[in-house]
Amino acid sequence: MSPEWNRLTPAVRVQIEAFQDAPPVRLPELARALGVSVKASTLGPGISGEIRPADDGGFVIRINRHDPPKRQRFTVAHELAHFLLHSDEIGNGIEDDVLYRSSLSDRREQQANRLAADILMPGDLVAEAREAAEEKGVGDVVLYLADLFAVSEAAMRIKIGQ
């Protein structure tokens, strides 16, 4: 797990793990449990998602309805990571484009990406699924795992170190 995962309180880790019981991780339910609403929206060119304070005092994530579903999932996880790691810096909102750039530093964007990967692809579940795929003789293990976890092949390659 990433250093960002280890920065979370044990209570928050347990809360996240409750939604990581089987792939794909139950992301919409996790967001609700954390008190963050998720809305599909038409966002500006190149903007995949944003997190902003909501009128009710909580936070709302808006994802680009025109992005592919796997991209939308990663965006939700990325914005949840900002909520968990950087909520004191959200202010009027953080927007992330396809290159994961925002008004925050590259370091914070990398932190959000690493935690998003931990949320979407928990190491133990990935290892179990990889072992099962190899035992079954699955031809393209990365593609199989990416589909199983509803993430991009690129994200899965990074996760399993290929």
TrEMBL record:
Ranges of residues in domain IrrE N-terminal-like: 51-159
Transmembrane segments: none
UniProt protein name: ImmA/IrrE family metallo-endopeptidase
Highest taxon of source: Bacteria
Species this protein is from: Sphingomonas ginsenosidivorax
Pfam families: Peptidase_M78
